[in-house]
Amino acid sequence: MLPRLRPCPYPPSAPTPRLPDEHGDREGPHPGLTLTPHRHDPDLAPRTPALSPTATITLHRTTAGTLAGHASGSRHQWAETCLTLAGFTTDQYGTHQLPLTDASQAREALHQLRQSAQDLDVAVVLSEQPFLGDVADRIARTLPGRWTVTVTAHPDPHAQNGLLEWVWASGPSEGALHGALTRRPSATAHLRRDSADTWLTLVHDVWHGHYVVGAMLPGPDEIDTVISEGPACVTAPTIDAIAAAGRGRLLPDYAAKLQRGQLAAAEEDLRWAQESYEPGEILEPFDPALAGALARFRSQAPRLITHVRRRQARQLSEHEAAFLDAFEATLESDGQNDTVAMSLWLTEGDQLLELARNPDRPTLAPPAATRPVPGPTPTLSAARSR
Fold first, then answer.
1. Of 199, 232, 249, which residue is a domain's last?
2. Are residues 95 and 150 in the same domain?
3. Last residue within a domain, chosen from 126, 156, 173
4. Given this model, what pLDDT does residue 139 score?
5. First vs last Cα of the chain: how many Å apart?
6. Is 143 in the same domain as 244?
7. 213 and 201 in contact (C-beta within 8 Å)?
8. How far is Cα 243 from Cα 323, in angstroms, rounded to an integer?
9. Residues 312 and 292 in one domain
10. Contact 328/300 with Cβ under 8 angstroms?
11. For the purposes of burial, counting CB atoms within 10 Å of the CB of 14, is it exposed (0-12), middle (13-18) or buried (19 or more)?
């Protein structure tokens, strides 16, 4: 039987690697892997075209010395069965791996894979593109901070629908990442910063021949603070170029959009609390809505203070520096007692938000002699619903 020719998304000038057939094709760079002859090969005898397979196994060489396999198509279960029968192991995210350290075992496994794939009418393609996890690792090494990389397989043609709901859309067109995911890639790579709710997704857009990195909605603690339009996705044809674009454009835009959303949410909470309650008319335990707003402020305040200190294009005035130090110290020393934090938020939260909103110009008035504290006889005023 002659090897089946399959449509390839890569340029016809580049031979497409595939698994060997029984005619003894030339071996490729790994045992048992060969190059598929071109359609114009004079040694290729005419044959009746086969029907398009309903499942595909795409293999990638990895820097870890393995073959990574992804199943896709309407009958992807058959493709996954082929990989299992051939001895591939599966991680929790659905990527199948075969070690290549033992040449004879690898050859036997690939022979088994070819036989099973032929029996079940599953196409097998060895991609010349780098494994997506290796690409994501290279990108992560160029980004500031510590990042965790995972690769998720999407064997089902509709598996990306859940992921689409988390894309932080950038503009009316929803961005390049949204478009790449709608073309149903068989795998996506995810980069998460360990110290912050930063989630980026990497896709190789086969049809356009480039990589796409875009932002996903932040974690649960931040999902209510994002504004409608997210940071713009970045695209590039090479790994170095996409890493540079992610570091130089996407991450700064991500931080700016998230900061803007956090400020908007903090301002909304503070306006609501100030309109609904008087500082001297608040009893403990606090109304649940008010307690929730205070908890959000306490989680946001350290980041706002860090933002002001980091973004100052000019020298902080002595009063501004003292204000930030005192604000920070009060929150840190308050412990589980929210009374002082509540007073600080309602009376001086405006000044912190103003500094965070306009970090490059002075905004604070001279310090008051004393800071108001909650009054001893609280009576809740009518609060509007959150």
1. 249
2. no
3. 126
4. 97
5. 70
6. yes
7. yes
8. 39
9. yes
10. no
11. exposed
Is residue 4 in some structural domain? no
Give the pLDDT mean for 179-188.
88
DSSP 167: B
Quick check: is 11 in a domain?
Answer: no
Token pair, residue 325, equals: 């130090």
In a domain, 1, yes or no: no
Place of tokens 């931080």: 255
Nearest to 127, CA basis, from 238, 35, 20: 35
163 and 102 inside one domain: no
Q: Which of 135-149, 168-182, 319-333 is most confident?
A: 135-149
Judge if 144 and 99 occupy the same domain.
Answer: no
pLDDT at 140 over 60: yes
Q: Which residues form the domain of 319?
A: 277-357
Looking at the 3D structure of the chain, how many domains does it have?
Answer: 3
- pLDDT tens, residue by residue, 361-384: 555 555 444 444 333 333 333 333
Strands (E), 104-143: 123-126
Question: Percentage of the chain with pLDDT > 70?
Answer: 73
Residue 306 in any domain: the answer is yes
Which residues pair with residue 59 across a beta bridge?
Answer: 69, 126
The answer to whether residues 194 and 146 touch, using CB atoms and an 8 Å cutoff, is: yes
Q: pLDDT tens across 14-44, in order?
A: 333 344 444 444 444 454 454 333 333 333 3
**DSSP line for 194-208:** TTS--EEEEEEETTT
Report which of 15, 5, 153, 182 is spatially closest to residue 79, judged by C-alpha positions.
Answer: 153
Residue 208 and residue 228 in one domain: yes
- 190 and 90 together in one domain: no
CB 330 within 8 A of CB 283: no
Choose among 80, 71, 76: nearest CA to 153.
71
The predicted pLDDT at position 41 comes to 38
- Co-location of 156 and 234 in the same domain: yes
Q: Can you tell me the distance from the alpha carbon of 190 to that of 23, in angstroms, rounded to the nearest whole number?
A: 41
* Coil vs helix vs strand at 324: helix
